[in-house]
Each structure stands twice: as structure tokens, then as C-alpha cells.
Design a protein that fits this description.
Blueprint: H1 2-6, E1 10-18, E2 25-33, H2 37-41, E3 46-52, E4 63-69, E5 87-91, E6 102-106, E7 111-115, H3 121-156, E8 164-169, E9 174-177, E10 182-185, H4 187-191, H5 196-217
């Protein structure tokens, strides 16, 4: 949230759930809106490991915990356009005994709509096309939601510590990103959003290097 504020982005909390029996959050989700948000924050996806001495620890032992982060781009609106070439229209007694009845089949999806409520075939066709568009919209929306759910699941992984992308060691005031082997010091600055840019910049640089290598190979 503080990093979003530093970048002039809009941060909105969607939902939170508290952990049971211990202070803190079990799960939280938010939307962040602004220029370049996903480009910068996509690298936060993964397991973040925290090493610290809790206030309840009397022996001074370091405890390790993890938090799994998933970063998803906002889903675009589903735009539905029913093309004439994609539909087959049957009318009259080929549908049933009502001359005005219409059956429309959307070939790409196999969705079929039958309409016989109106007196004229023209009216039934117009009504059937509206119902067809609505059903295609719902189908595309469900597919989109499933794709996002699959993407989120793949990002979260098992949440095992071995999958960690970054470690926050409070005792040493050290933050280490294991993907680029880069460390910074200053936990307060990190929690204030001031130390995130060096990690993101290094990750973006590494991504550009990999893209250039791929081009040179091709």
C-alpha cells in the first residue's frame, strides 16, 4: 500500500481475513490501479520468507514464516459479437409445429437457442439472438474466471519455503531476492515501500537480458 502511494497509484482493499489464534492476517486481496502497475508488481508473485524473533519468543530464537503472493492483471470486459457466418438459423416447422418458431445454433460453441414466444418469426429471431449473445457472454466469462483461477493457483504453488523468491531477515535488517541474488539493508525503508524499486529494477533488467539472448539465439 505504501509503495502504491509513493508511485501515485490507487490502492483499494477488497477483503481481509484474520488469522485464528494469532495476531495478523491469514489472507488479503486488493486492487492497485495506475500506470505501469502490473509491469512493476508482477515480480512480487511467489513465496516471501520472513525470519524474525517474535515478541512472544523468550529465548531469542529466530522463527521463519512465509507469505504467498499472487499478482494478476485486471480481467478485461468480455465483448461479445455474434457474426452471421457463425450461426445457423432454422425456422418454421423444422423447429416445431409453430411457423414463427426459430432455432439458432452458434457453430463455434454449439450453443442452441429456440424461441417461439412471439407471433412473428422476425421477432423470435431478434429475441433468440439476444438470448444467444447472453449465453455466449456467460460462457466466455466462466472461461475467463477459470483461466484466472488457474493462473492464481499456478502462481501460489505449494507455498513451500523452498519456493521462496525473497527473504526478509529482521535481525540483520537484510532483504534478499534469491532470483537475482540481490540484497538491500533497511527493513523500515522496505516496509515503507522505499526499497522495493532496486529489486524490481534488477528483475526488469534481467528480463531484458533474457529477451535479448532469446533474440540472438533465433
Amino acid at each position: 500500500k505504501k509503495y502504491a502511494s509513493l508511485n501515485g497509484w490507487r490502492f483499494e482493499t477488497l477483503e481481509t481475513s484474520k488469522a485464528e489464534g494469532v495476531p495478523g492476517m491469514r489472507e488479503a486481496s486488493a486492487t492497485i490501479t495506475g500506470e505501469g502497475v502490473y509491469r512493476r508488481l508482477q515480480y512480487e508473485t511467489g513465496v516471501h520468507r520472513v525470519q524474525r524473533v517474535p515478541a512472544t519468543e523468550s529465548q531469542g530464537r529466530i522463527h521463519t514464516s512465509t507469505c504467498t503472493v499472487a499478482v494478476l492483471p485486471e480481467a478485461p470486459e468480455v465483448n461479445i459479437e455474434v457474426l452471421n457466418k457463425d450461426i445457423r438459423i432454422d425456422g418454421g416447422q423444422s423447429v416445431n409445429t409453430t411457423d414463427s418458431a426459430v432455432r439458432i445454433t452458434h457453430e463455434p460453441t454449439g450453443i442452441v437457442v429456440c424461441m417461439q414466444d412471439e407471433r412473428s418469426q422476425h421477432q423470435n429471431k431478434a429475441k433468440a439472438l439476444k438470448v444467444l449473445a447472453a449465453r455466449i457472454y456467460e460462457r466466455e466469462k466462466r472461461m475467463q474466471q477459470q483461466q484466472r483461477a488457474d493462473l492464481r493457483s499456478s502462481q501460489i504453488g505449494s507455498g513451500d519455503r523452498s519456493e521462496k523468491i525473497r527473504t526478509y531477515n529482521f535481525s540483520r535488517q537484510q532483504i534478499t531476492d534469491h532470483r537475482v541474488k540481490h540484497s538491500e539493508f533497511g527493513m523500515d525503508k522496505m516496509l515503507g515501500g522505499e526499497l522495493l524499486d532496486p529489486f524490481i529494477d534488477e528483475l526488469l533488467f534481467q528480463q531484458r537480458l533474457e529477451q535479448l539472448k532469446a533474440l540472438s539465439i533465433d
